Amino acid sequence: MYVHDIIATHPHVRGSTDETLIHAIEETFACAQACTACADACLGEEMVADLTLCIRLNLDCADICVAAGKIASRRTGSDIDVILATLQACRLACLACTEECARHARMHEHCAICADACRNCAEACHAAFVSVH
Question: Could you give the count of Cα atoms lying within 13 Å of 10 in the half-sphere of its Cβ?
């Protein structure tokens, strides 16, 4: 992805990048895509009623991941407290989604993949939180 390159060229960053935060940004967008695709795949399953919570958590997680990635990407006048709160919210949403998707992972491969993406994103958000804080 272009996350590092574009942030490194920002006039307020001037090449001094936080690689941990950049990794989290990449993971948020990857997780949002996985959650969106998983929710859609869940809707296609015969047992869709049994996947209602999974679908809702996927959609919530995707929305929070996109917001976190966008906010963390902004460098002009960044409010560190907002970035930290967003990273924490993203981590919590990812942990909830990981747990729910893992419950369905044996029956639905898309849930196993999504659980991995959410777990990776939660870890990256936590690392970025520590790095930025």
Answer: 17
